[in-house]
Amino acid sequence: MMLAGMAALGLGIGVATIPVPYVVESPGPTYNTLGQSQGTPVIKVTGRESYPAAGNLDLTTVYVAGGPNGPVSIIGAFSAWLDRTKAVHPVELLYPTGTTRQEAEEQSAVAMTTSQENALASALNELDIPFGQQLQAADLSEGSASAGKIQPGDILKSINGKDITALSVIQEELAAGNGAAATVVLEREGQPVTETITPKDNGQGRFILGVMLKYLFTFPFDVEISLEKVGGPSAGLMFSLGIIDTVTPGDLTGGKHIAGTGTITPDGAVGPIGGIGQKMQAARAGGATLFLAPAANCEQVAGHIPDGLQVVRVENLAEARAAVERAGTGQDTSGLPGCTNN
After folding, report:
1. Is the dihedral of CA 289, 295, 300, 303 positive or negative?
2. Which of 89, 264, 270, 316 would bridge 93 by S-S if both were Cys, CB 3.0 to 4.6 A apart?
3. Are 251 and 274 in contact, with CB atoms under 8 Å apart?
4. CA–CA distance, 228 with 241 (Å, rounded to integer)
5. 186 Cβ partners below 8 Å, 6+ apart?
6. pLDDT at position 218, please?
7. Across-strand partners of 195?
8. Considering only CA atoms, which of 70, 251, 234, 265 is closest in space to residue 166?
9. For the whole model, what pTM was predicted?
10. What's the rounded mean pLDDT across residues 209-226?
11. How many Å apart are CA 125 and CA 240, to the nearest integer?
């Protein structure tokens, strides 16, 4: 009986430690974009006057266990299911099959760098400070309409005679053409190249050139963001607000403790992120009373808001800035749009 019991116990322990194909998201630390990290300002401006700011504009993070970050056991997954502050997802929901830890870290680092550039661009747009902006071809999609015509490294200058100052210019022109060929002027190794390209339907009724693009910026001053071991694109919105507060006199927050999350585009659009429930928990645990959430995440927000935290739904940087200013000046924030179950 003793041997049988020991065997059963060993079998139970073995089963409990078997890895399962899930990832677990837990609330991570928060970082004040107006403060310091390891003795260094999170946001440092060079080449333009900056102003110390009081209060908090916290970016929020999530710990992710499982997938390329290491295995999650059956017990780990089950205990996370029982914990309302955590979330459990199939691995393939967050990581493509076969993704290595190095690949995941590299992708996260690239996304963070891009979000910082987009944050500065959106902040400058919001403050009406001019800067240079171009779109460069990074790669072509499979079966691209631009194959043999656009090469990686080409800078897109104009489409049908309209200067390409943002991605929206291309999208609007292709939509107006409804599948008609477009004349695209490129800059290749310093020389102009003109191509006529017939866009393809992407299967969702939208015509595309089949080019993966990246922005090339020329900023009037430098902004250095120092934040170790934090990756991904979801801090973009809070970086933008932190930059605005740093380069303008006064305190945007009025000394209040505000947190948030959301990707940001150069023109200020706020996009959805993952782990919104855990980020709200992290924000409240860090002392925040107001939380800025992407409008596209409202479905995951409703019904999961921690006690003592007001969530404000935002679609762009202008709305986020207005909400922070309203809270910072002591005005009533109850009328600001939130996320509901309706």
Report:
1. positive
2. 89
3. no
4. 20
5. 150, 154, 155, 156, 157, 192, 193, 194, 195
6. 94
7. 184
8. 265
9. 0.85
10. 94
11. 10
